[in-house]
């Protein structure tokens, strides 16, 4: 499967006014509080010819029901991850070995009531919460933890509360 390409993807690290970030629990993982790896940042594919900055706002609207956010930072490099062997050929339509991601830091400009996981008829997430950025590497899926650690360092300057 190593000859499969990476899927172009964007990811959103969404900060609230208190400097906390949004993580959401995948609906397709065991819904047990504290289950390892079930919490992640919103992310999704980039459509053909789509600008990554537009894609990240579109993905937010699709996955959490709102695009009430402004881009405040961008990780300077594309990051990649490989799917674990058990997911190769099954996840991502079976057409990709993993994802090549462009990550953005965004400031949430709405209220918690604007976050609507049920906006999509087939929601990817079944719960969400605000957490400290430094917590995210241990909350994410095992195969994404390295990326989350990079993002925790890269976007740390955005984690301060704002007025």
TrEMBL record:
A motif (Nudix box) lies at residues 44-65. Keywords: Hydrolase. Gene3D superfamilies: Nucleoside Triphosphate Pyrophosphohydrolase (3.90.79.10). Its cofactor is a divalent metal cation; Mg(2+). PROSITE patterns: NUDIX, NUDIX_BOX. GO terms for biological process: nucleoside phosphate metabolic process; ribose phosphate metabolic process. It comes from the Bacteria. Its EC number is 3.6.1.-. The keyword Transcription regulation does not apply. Residues 5-153 form the Nudix hydrolase domain. PANTHER family: NUDIX HYDROLASE 26, CHLOROPLASTIC, UDP/ADP-SUGAR PYROPHOSPHATASE. HAMAP family: Nudix_RppH (MF_00298). Accelerates the degradation of transcripts by removing pyrophosphate from the 5'-end of triphosphorylated RNA, leading to a more labile monophosphorylated state that can stimulate subsequent ribonuclease cleavage. This is RNA pyrophosphohydrolase. The gene is rppH.
């Amino acid at each position: 499967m190593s000859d499969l390409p990476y899927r172009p993807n964007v990811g959103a690290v969404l900060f609230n006014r208190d400097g906390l970030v949004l993580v959401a629990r995948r609906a397709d993982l065991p819904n047990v509080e504290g289950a390892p790896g079930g919490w992640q940042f919103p992310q999704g594919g980039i459509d053909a010819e789509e600008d990554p900055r537009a894609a990240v706002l579109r993905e937010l609207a699709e996955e959490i029901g709102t695009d009430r956010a402004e881009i405040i930072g961008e990780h300077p490099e594309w990051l990649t991850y490989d799917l674990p062997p058990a997911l190769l050929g099954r996840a991502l339509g079976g057409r990709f070995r993993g994802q090549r991601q462009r990550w953005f830091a965004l400031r949430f400009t709405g209220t918690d009531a604007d976050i609507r996981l049920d906006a999509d008829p087939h929601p990817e997430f079944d719960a969400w919460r605000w957490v400290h950025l430094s917590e995210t590497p241990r909350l994410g899926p095992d195969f994404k933890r390295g990326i989350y650690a990079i993002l925790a360092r890269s976007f740390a300057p955005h984690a301060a509360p704002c007025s």
